[in-house]
């Protein structure tokens, strides 16, 4: 016999040839081009495509799933035909890959059919797919954890500081000359907390601070921290804002208005002292294991003094803040008072925004 493309022809009369073919780990058969009759098959092919004792000699009836017309079309074009199917080997469904290609003997043109057990290959592919899915799952979980951590960080520091911390592992302290701070503290909170159910008080405080967060965000301000019943926010840090004083004043008025409306609808009253101030501050991360972004400097200290000097449901500021805001807001004069660490200060109550008619 003569093989196409230089392939040595099988000599069916040679014992050594039969021994070689029968010992192959692949199933092999020669098929007549015209009749599809199986002219030769090795023991592996007979075992894998066993007909249960029924004599079936054509390829389409022996090999499940083969599309013989498609195979012939491809083979006439000089290409191979390949597909995968399942056969029963040792009482177990086994995936095999079937390859059909042209083969020419001295007597006639034939198709050479080779079937290979790909169960190991499928197992490896399954493992790779499993590892890939596991890696994708881990990546999604890591991304979700990263988003969760970033959300937590955004609760305690400005976004620009979070971005710098993530990129460089630290954040550079900054001095901010043009910014405004609001400090708020509830009157009688300690007695309230001791007298009432703790879970109820904490739940109400959480609702109030959540509303305050929405108000500060509305005017481009940043909530810096809460300590117990104290709330602190800033405008102009770390992003500069030419209207920092106006923004913090609007926040203060809306916080007070929110508390007034809440008190009218709830049995438990929450009354706050509020102080606002404009002045230079330094913003920096503090701590080693637990990061906190905090503000330092006279701008913060005087805001705290304004809160202490304020009265329940009043917003207090000094002359400097009044001068920045008097064109847009209404004030009532409190006169001069001695402020610890800052000497005598002329104080005002912030009452409302100026009503403009057009």
Question: How is the secondary structure organized here?
Answer:
Layout: H1 15-22, E1 27-32, E2 38-41, H2 43-48, H3 59-62, H4 68-76, E3 81-89, E4 92-104, E5 109-117, H5 119-154, H6 159-168, E6 174-176, E7 180-186, H7 189-195, H8 198-218, E8 222-227, E9 230-235, H9 244-265, E10 272-278, E11 281-286, E12 292-296, H10 298-309, E13 314-318, H11 319-325, E14 329-339, E15 343-353
Helix pairs in contact: 8-9
Protein described:
With 358 residues, the protein is an alpha+beta fold. It is 40% helix and 30% strand. It has eleven helices and 15 strands. The protein has a seven-stranded mixed beta sheet with strand order 8-9-7-10-13-15-14. Strand 4 and strand 5 (109-117) form a beta hairpin.
Question: How would you summarize what this structure contains?
Answer:
The chain is of the alpha+beta class and 358 residues long. It is 40% helix and 30% strand.
Helix content: 25-40%
Number of strands: 15
Query: Element order, helices and strands?
Result: HEEHHHEEEHHEEHHEEHEEEHEHEE
- Rg is 42 Å
Q: How confident overall, as mean pLDDT?
A: 86
The total of helices stands at: 11
Strand order, sheet with most strands: 8-9-7-10-13-15-14
Residue stretches low in confidence (pLDDT < 50, at least 5 long) are 1-7
Strand content: 25-35%
> Helix/strand/pairing class, anyone?
alpha+beta
Name the shape in a single word.
rod-shaped
Largest sheet: 7 strands, mixed
Distance separating the two termini: 106 Å
């Amino acid at each position: 016999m003569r093989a196409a493309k230089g392939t040595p022809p099988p000599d069916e009369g040679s014992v050594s040839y039969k021994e070689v073919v029968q010992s192959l780990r692949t199933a092999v058969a020669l098929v007549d081009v015209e009749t599809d009759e199986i002219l030769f098959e090795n023991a592996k092919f007979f075992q894998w495509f066993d007909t249960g004792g029924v004599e079936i000699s054509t390829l389409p009836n022996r090999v499940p799933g083969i599309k013989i017309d498609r195979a012939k079309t491809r083979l006439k074009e000089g290409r191979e035909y390949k597909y995968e199917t399942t056969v029963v080997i040792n009482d177990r469904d086994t995936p095999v890959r079937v390859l059909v290609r042209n083969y020419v003997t001295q007597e006639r043109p034939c198709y050479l059919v080779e079937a290979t057990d790909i169960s190991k290959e499928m197992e490896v592919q399954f493992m790779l797919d499993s590892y890939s899915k596991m890696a994708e799952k881990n990546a999604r979980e890591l991304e979700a954890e990263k988003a969760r951590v970033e959300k937590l960080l955004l609760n305690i520091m400005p976004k620009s500081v979070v971005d710098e911390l993530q990129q460089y592992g630290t954040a550079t302290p900054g001095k901010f000359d043009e910014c405004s701070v609001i400090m708020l503290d509830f009157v009688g909170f300690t007695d309230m907390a001791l007298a009432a159910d703790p879970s109820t008080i904490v739940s109400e405080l959480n609702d109030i601070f959540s509303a305050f967060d929405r108000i500060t965000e509305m005017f481009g301000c940043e909530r810096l921290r809460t300590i117990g019943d104290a709330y602190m926010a800033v405008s102009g840090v770390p992003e500069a804002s030419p209207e920092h004083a106006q923004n913090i004043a609007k926040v203060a008025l809306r916080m007070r208005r929110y508390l007034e409306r809440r008190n009218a609808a709830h049995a438990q009253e929450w009354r706050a002292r509020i102080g606002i101030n404009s002045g230079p501050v330094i913003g920096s991360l503090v701590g080693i294991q637990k990061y906190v972004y905090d503000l330092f400097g006279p701008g913060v200290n005087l805001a705290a003094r304004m809160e202490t000097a304020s009265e329940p449901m009043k917003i207090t500021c000094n002359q400097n803040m009044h001068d920045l805001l008097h064109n847009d807001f209404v004030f009532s004069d409190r006169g001069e008072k001695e402020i610890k660490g800052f000497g005598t200060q002329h104080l005002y109550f912030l009452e409302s925004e100026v009503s403009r008619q057009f």
